[in-house]
Amino acid sequence: MFPPFTSTVAFLQVASVAAITLNSTFLILPDVGPSNPKNLSTPFDWRCNGADYGYDLSLESCADALSQIDSSDRAMETYGLRNPDGTGHADVNWPQRFISSDGRCVIDTLPGQGDSGFLSPQRLSFGVLYVIDECVAGAISRGGQVHDMGGDNRIWATVQSYAPRLGCGAPSMSPLVQESCQDILDTMPASAILIRFGLAGDPLASVTTPYTFMSQDRRCRMTIGTDGVTDWFNWYQIWEVGVALNGVCVRSGRSGTQARLGIRNHLDVTMTTT
Fold first, then answer.
1. What's the rounded mean pLDDT across residues 217-234?
2. Which pTM does this prediction carry?
3. What Å distances lie between residue 190 and 12, 109, 166, 232, CA to CA?
4. Closest to 69 measured CA to CA, from 147, 184, 159
5. Residue 126: in which H helix or E strand, if any?
6. Residues 67-94: pLDDT tens digits?
7. In sequence order, which residues have a C-beta less than 8 Å from that of residue 183 and are 6 or more positions away?
8. What is the CA radius of gyration of the chain?
9. 3-class SS at 228?
10. Are 68 and 98 in contact, with CB atoms under 8 Å apart?
11. Interval 95-131: pLDDT, tens
């Protein structure tokens, strides 16, 4: 169990940084330790888990990641799995991630029971706030997860530490390009199957590099490159890098690159405006 601490103070820290307005029933969170079984009187079933989600998370970073979720939006959104080609039929086609501007904290939603569900952004933000208040701002700072959210209790969310190895360029674009780059991330493939990336002429390459994704409005592009040597990676890992580039670099009006990717460190991903 956590040693006693003032949960209201932790909440106010998070709310102040993330600029969140909650109903009065959420103003005081019960101090019930590192987990909250459903038989206790809180709206969510949550768990703190530093082994899986990291220790010593930054409260400010996680509050910043939380601020990317529209806590005022009560409209239900449908969630579903993304097809191998990146298409989907839900409002949110997994995977989904919110990242802080320094890249040190990420919030993921994921299917808990089944492969679909529905949830409002406001309800998601409330559930994540419990994890941040009880786990990140707890006596032992660590990440955690919240279970069984949504209209059918099928959606989970995690809060965890993250450390992208990327480089951002000088300011060169409008931060509004972030929305265009998000279009790429929402519609690209994201499977976890290893595929082979190689230059033209490699008969074994599944994807020929350089390979470029372009946003529908053609304001953002994400390019996968190689240093000349064939390498293996999967689309989910590339999607993950793209989220970091968009949330850290493009969000501040800069292009970004992450190199030394792939099993043998021969791939790179760049995100920039066109």
1. 96
2. 0.85
3. 36, 14, 20, 15
4. 159
5. helix 121-131
6. 999 999 999 999 999 999 999 999 999 9
7. 215, 216, 217, 220
8. 19
9. coil
10. yes
11. 999 999 999 999 999 998 889 999 999 999 999 999 9
